[in-house]
Design brief:
transmembrane, membrane, about 375 residues, Bact_Transport_Assoc, mainly alpha
Length: about 375
């Protein structure tokens, strides 16, 4: 029996709402990269206006580092659902899954090289190939492996930062600046032609796709995919209404704890150990808190209806993710409107909200005429073509 694509009746609204929610968090972080040379300077030293410093601070605390893991968790959850469906039909998911990841990789590479260097699709596709090989494992095994991988990273990060801090009395994380690339980024993206931006993008992509970054992504992204796959087998979303109180308790505990640990980055002059707590402890805790809160809220019929517009965005998250990059390229790069570096962080937050609201409306209207977003349709057609 041939494996068929997921139909509308098989979709889980809570998963789509979570995907739609995560798109907003990703947009809030990415808009800073579209406006400032984040690869080469710590923004807290780049800004001088108090409003910019406060805006950057709260994006770093409430958003940065907590939404890509959420998307990775959702990615693992969804991929495991597809694999489970294939296995129930007596089919191997390996050929179909590999084809899906190959197409996603092409989307990601095109996005990275021609639109925006900070692409995450390539990362998900590469680790998706590895995940496919582990989708037949028992959920307990998937969960333990994922937790072990992340624990190694967290312990290494905290230990390294603690030792470095003890050895460096004068140095602060905020002092990192690559003047040459800061200037070239501002010139290429702020006032340069499309070819100028392309040239700088190739430099930025090379740093994003470095061996060090791939190792970092393996320890910070792949574990959440595995945990998501395990929870998919346990059907935690499908059974969430029966555990609404548990999800609520987790959210009430994890959100304030996550904020507390992420805020340590801004204590004691941005010390190294505070950076470690922010990345290794605070970011995943806040991700768990946000996820639990959305799941708990979706168990309340009236609230679920209020959140339902997010599900339309979630159903076409690939299209909207790429669309965000295209819109921001037009708004901020020199070859188009050219607002690069000209707006403060607070204004960028307002623009993010405007883009997101537009996308919610666009998704609602588009999906009233079509079953999927355009890129999702293309992905499906190529995947299931013979």
């Amino acid at each position: 029996m041939q494996i068929a694509p997921t139909n509308k009746k098989e979709r889980i609204a809570t998963l789509d709402i979570l995907r739609g929610f995560s798109l907003f968090g990703i947009l809030l972080v990415n808009i800073l990269s579209f406006n400032y040379p984040m690869n080469y300077v710590e923004l807290r030293t780049y800004f001088t206006a108090p409003s910019d410093l406060q805006g950057e601070k709260w994006i770093m605390i409430l958003v940065q580092g907590s939404f890509y893991p959420l998307f990775a968790w959702l990615f693992g959850y969804g991929l495991q659902m597809q694999a489970t469906k294939a296995h129930s039909l007596g089919e191997s998911f390996l050929p179909l899954g590999s084809k899906r990841m190959s197409i996603l990789l092409l989307f990601g590479l095109f996005h990275a090289f021609f639109i925006w260097y900070g692409d995450i699709l390539t990362t998900y596709a590469i680790f998706g190939f590895i995940l496919i090989l582990m989708l037949k494992l028992k959920p307990k095994v998937q969960f333990i492996i994922g937790m072990c991988i992340y624990s190694v990273f967290a312990l290494f990060m905290l230990l390294t930062m603690w030792v470095t801090e003890k050895m460096s009395d004068q140095y602060e994380l905020s002092s990192y600046t690559d003047i040459t690339n800061v200037k070239s980024s501002i010139e290429a993206y702020g006032s340069g032609s499309w070819l100028d931006a392309m040239g700088q993008r190739l430099i930025d992509v090379s740093s994003q796709f470095s061996f060090t970054m791939w190792v970092a992504m393996f320890f910070t992204v792949f574990p959440f995919m595995l945990v998501g796959a395990a929870m998919s087998q346990w059907k935690v979303i499908e059974k969430s209404k029966k555990k609404a109180i548990v999800w609520t308790i987790v959210a009430v505990i994890a959100i304030p704890l996550g904020i507390y640990f992420k805020a340590q980055l801004y204590g004691n002059n941005f010390e190294f150990f505070g950076q470690g707590l922010n990345i290794a402890v605070g970011a995943p805790l806040l991700m768990i808190g946000y996820t639990s809160a959305i799941i708990a809220l979706c168990s309340i019929p009236g609230v679920a209806k209020i959140l339902s517009p997010l599900s339309y965005a979630g159903r076409m998250s690939l299209t909207l993710y790429i669309m965000q990059s295209i819109i921001q390229s037009i708004l901020f790069y020199g070859f188009a409107i050219g607002l690069y570096g000209k707006l403060g962080v607070i204004n960028l937050i307002y623009i993010s909200i405007a883009i997101y609201v537009f996308q919610l409306g666009f998704a609602r209207i588009y999906l009233s005429y079509f079953k999927q977003g355009p890129l999702e349709t293309l992905w499906k057609k190529v995947t299931y073509s013979k």
